[in-house]
Design goal:
This protein is α+β, with helices and mostly antiparallel strands. The protein has three helices and five strands, in the order E-H-H-E-E-H-E-E. It has one domain: 2-Layer Sandwich (Heat Shock Protein 90).
Length: 137
């Protein structure tokens, strides 16, 4: 399943409805849904926050690939920003000594099984996977 979403924080409700429809169709267990939804929310909101004036909507694609849920978010006409190259957040440092930013990406890395980035012709695609857990219903 794939769909383009308006570059707006207000699109999050529609994104969650889209994800819920995918999870229901694929019978994904509730325990696997939360990390996928959190990762999508963090990555989508970063695209909106850091590229508010990009002219196109953001494409969200979700599929089953082997034993994984594969999710990709594609942003168009944007500068390169490799989320896989961002240093991890130092969560052991006292709050006052921590660098600003990066905690959301740190959380994404810890919730998903793989994270990849591709950039070509001003098109940025972030792809992540999460192992499938099926519901008992």
């Amino acid at each position: 399943m794939q769909k383009e979403f308006t570059r707006s924080f207000a699109s999050l409700e529609e994104i969650f409805e889209f994800a819920d429809a995918f999870f229901a169709r694929e019978q994904v267990a509730q325990s696997a849904r939360y990390p996928v939804q959190c990762a999508v929310e963090e990555l989508f909101t970063n695209m909106v926050k850091y590229n508010p004036d990009a002219p196109r909507d953001i494409l969200l694609a979700m599929s089953i690939n082997g034993g994984d849920i594969e999710v990709s978010l594609t942003d168009y006409d944007v500068d390169e920003f490799d989320v896989t190259a961002v240093p991890g957040a130092d969560t052991a440092a006292p709050i006052g000594e921590r660098a600003v930013g990066g905690l959301g990406l740190h959380l994404v890395r810890n919730m998903v099984d793989s994270l990849a980035y591709d950039y070509s012709d001003r098109q940025s695609t972030i792809t992540f996977t999460k192992e499938i857990e099926y519901s008992d219903v």
